[in-house]
Amino acid sequence: MNTQAEYKEFTNRLKLLIKKHPNLITMTLSNIFTMRLIGNKTHGDLAEIAIAEFVNQYMYDFRSIHVGKDLYRAKSKEEDIKIINEITKAEFPVSLKAYGDGPLQLSTDKNSLMFRTLSEAGQLDRPEQVKAVFDHVAFSSFAEINVLPLIYDEERQRCNILVFDYDTALIQTAKIVHVSEGRGRKHPVFVFLDSNDDYICEVRYGDAAANALQRGLWTNTRRALKHFDSITGGWIDYSHNLVLVKLFSHALVSSNVGHELALEKVKEDIAALKQRSGI
Fold first, then answer.
1. Whole-model pTM above 0.70?
2. Contact, 151 vs 161, CB < 8 A?
3. What is the tens place of the pLDDT at every residue in 101-155?
4. Within 13 Å of residue 180, how many CA atoms lie on the same side as its CB?
5. What is residue 159's DSSP assignment?
6. Disulfide engineering: 78 pairs with which of 95, 264, 267, 279, CB 3.0-4.6 Å?
């Protein structure tokens, strides 16, 4: 099964839904990033269950399952959400990221296989040399990572859902350069550049002193914007939902009886949203 093709179909359908009903994604993103008022890391975990539920409620031909942290740790591939195409029955994993505008980790490489391969490859400035790298087993999963990044600009309270175009990155990489200095760099990286020496992505870090979770394939949403497809059609302004914070605080000190009553009201609201949107 070509998971990249299935993922592309999913993101295209998501993009169409957002274009037709921007209010639904704006509401959802506002709720997600309101969670940063509770804690700086809270929004990332809650974004996973929020986007999974967004798919279940508003994308009638797709179903989503939140994998969960325990199961996630046992997985061989990065996966936060499993998407099922209800028509083709195809299933594929999605890794959801909530990052600020700038550096974005696309995949982890705890054993530094990609970095080690690049270190041993020597000069990488000719098409056949670059192709040999991408054909290496260490890069076999390069185009199989289905990452859905929610990129946010907290100062301006806006979000952009950006999907990295791996196919274009593969085609347009003209050379790979080892960089060990500059930009306050602590560890060396291998930077992928196009024929105009414009930045595409990079592989971090091979040193044993580096954080293993920081190793792997990274890019930068500011420097490599032309290699992304914006699912939201650009930046979407969001606002904080202070009622949601109050709801959470009250829910944490109330019983499941109250939770069930509140859930019924929330379900009624979702049904009304669907009806108004014609979904």
1. yes
2. yes
3. 999 999 888 788 899 999 998 889 998 999 999 999 888 877 777 999 999 999 9
4. 3
5. E
6. 95
Residues 6+ apart with CB under 8 A from 147: 78, 94, 95, 96, 97, 106, 107, 163, 164
8 Å CB contact between 107 and 83: no
What are the per-10-residue average pLDDT scores of the chain (279 residues)?
Answer: 83 96 97 90 89 96 83 55 94 92 90 90 90 89 84 95 92 92 75 96 82 86 95 96 96 97 97 95
Residues with Cβ within 8 Å of residue 145, at least 6 apart in sequence: 77, 78, 95, 106, 107, 166, 217
